[in-house]
Structures are given as C-alpha cells and as structure tokens.
Amino acid sequence: MASKPSKKLETFDNPFIARDYRIHMEIPEFTCLCPKTGQPDFARLILDYIPDKKCVELKSLKLYIWSYRDEGAFHEAVTNQILDDLVAVLKPRYMRLIAKFFVRGGIFTNVIAEHRKKGWKPEPAVFLEAFEEQSNTRGD
C-alpha cells in the first residue's frame, strides 16, 4: 500500500493573505467506530474555513481523516477533535466543521463546531450564489 493513515496535517502558504475568502470542502466518506459497540459510524464532513497565513494540503487531510477509521469516538468528540487539530496547524480566521452522521438506531446526528480567531470580524456577506450539493455524494 503506497499510502497509510496519518495524524500529520501539512500546510502551504495562503496565496491571497490580504483577502478573506472561503474554502469549502466536502468529505463524504468519513468513518470511525462507535466506542460502545465497536460498529462503524459513517459521516459526511463539511469543512468551511477562511484561511489566515496557511491552507491545509489536501492529501494530508485525506490521510488524517482516514486515521479515524479504526478509532472509537463519540460523534461530538471526534468532530471537535478534528476542528481543534485543524485550528492548531492552520490558525484560520474562521473555521466551521459540520459532521452529518448517518442513521444509527433511527437517529441522525449532526454536530457543528466553529472557531473564530480572536478579533476577527467577517466582512458583510454578499450572497450571489450558494454551493450546490455535490452530485457524487450520498444523502443530504
């Protein structure tokens, strides 16, 4: 196997540091294990952030997400841990992580965690269009 899971998140310099801009990512194949039963939990992660000096490198993010596949974690804990790890290496102006867990026992769980850099205030929003759901993802 050429690649393996890793907790190391790599970064690169933000190419447009003077501007607030949004980076939007959808990660439709997140898995971890239920800490009570050991059964797999599946989720779609939605990551939005406004970078400051650094951006996350995508291959390292993929390997980082993969590292949770065999770990037991409550939905709330894993969502906040991922956000904390990303904030620690990126120090973004703003970041939001939404974890939309698939049904388990008749219950869907959505966990939303946010970070705002101290003193950062967003520019007033101008909504021209919204991102469409990706046609290659499962569910809502």
From TrEMBL:
Top EC class of this enzyme: oxidoreductase
* Name assigned to this protein: NADPH-dependent 7-cyano-7-deazaguanine reductase
Instruction: Name a single GO biological process.
Output: tRNA queuosine(34) biosynthetic process
Q: What is its EC number?
A: 1.7.1.13
Job of this protein:
Catalyzes the NADPH-dependent reduction of 7-cyano-7-deazaguanine (preQ0) to 7-aminomethyl-7-deazaguanine (preQ1).
A Pfam family name for this chain? Answer: QueF
Task: Name the UniProt key words of this record, in alphabetical order.
Answer: Cytoplasm, NADP, Oxidoreductase, Queuosine biosynthesis
Q: Which reaction does it catalyse?
A: 7-aminomethyl-7-carbaguanine + 2 NADP(+) = 7-cyano-7-carbaguanine + 2 NADPH + 3 H(+)
- The principal localisation class reads cytoplasm
The answer, when asked if Metal-binding is one of the entry's keywords, is no
In this protein, the active site sits at: C34, D41
Q: What cellular component terms from Gene Ontology apply here?
A: cytoplasm
Q: Which InterPro entries match?
A: GTP-CH-I_C/QueF (IPR043133), NADPH_dep_7-cyano-7-deazaG_red (IPR050084), QueF (IPR029500), QueF_type1 (IPR016856)
Its pathway, per UniProt, is:
tRNA modification; tRNA-queuosine biosynthesis
Q: Which HAMAP family match?
A: QueF_type1
Q: Where in the cell is it found?
A: Cytoplasm
